[in-house]
Design goal:
globular; 121 residues; single chain; four-stranded antiparallel beta sheet
């Protein structure tokens, strides 16, 4: 889905925009209209670039009939934990004197070329 923030160029047209968004959604249920909780921005999401362009054109010319300011496409920002693929207890070199592997310092994972070198076929 491609998402953009939309606002009326004039504060006086805010009501027109809200009614226009309702009409747009009724005409095309594949469009998602939401309000960003943290910023209060009205976000319109469409199935792709062409679909979004058509939705914005319809919103301007048929449904809201007002001038709009449209943001560049919004990128989804997801916050979360990144799981590193290493063995538990890795200290390898952070505390000095540790040899590789002594404290789990070897990284986990498999190398597909290892099987071929050992005659695994």
């Amino acid at each position: 889905m491609l998402r953009v923030a939309v606002e009326a160029e004039s504060v006086a047209d805010l009501e027109k925009l809200e009614r226009g968004l309702e009409r747009l959604y009724r005409a095309d249920p594949a469009v998602e209209v939401s309000t960003e909780a943290s910023t209060g921005e009205i976000v319109v999401a469409a199935l792709g670039e062409l679909h979004l362009e058509q939705c914005l054109k319809d919103l301007r010319e048929r449904f809201a009939r007002c001038a709009l300011r449209v943001s560049p496409p919004l990128l989804a920002f997801r916050e979360g934990l990144h799981r590193e693929q290493t063995q538990a207890g890795e200290h390898g070199g952070e505390h000095g004197g540790a040899h590789k592997g002594e404290h789990g310092g070897e990284h986990g994972g498999a190398d597909p070329s290892e099987g071929a070198e050992k005659g695994g076929g």
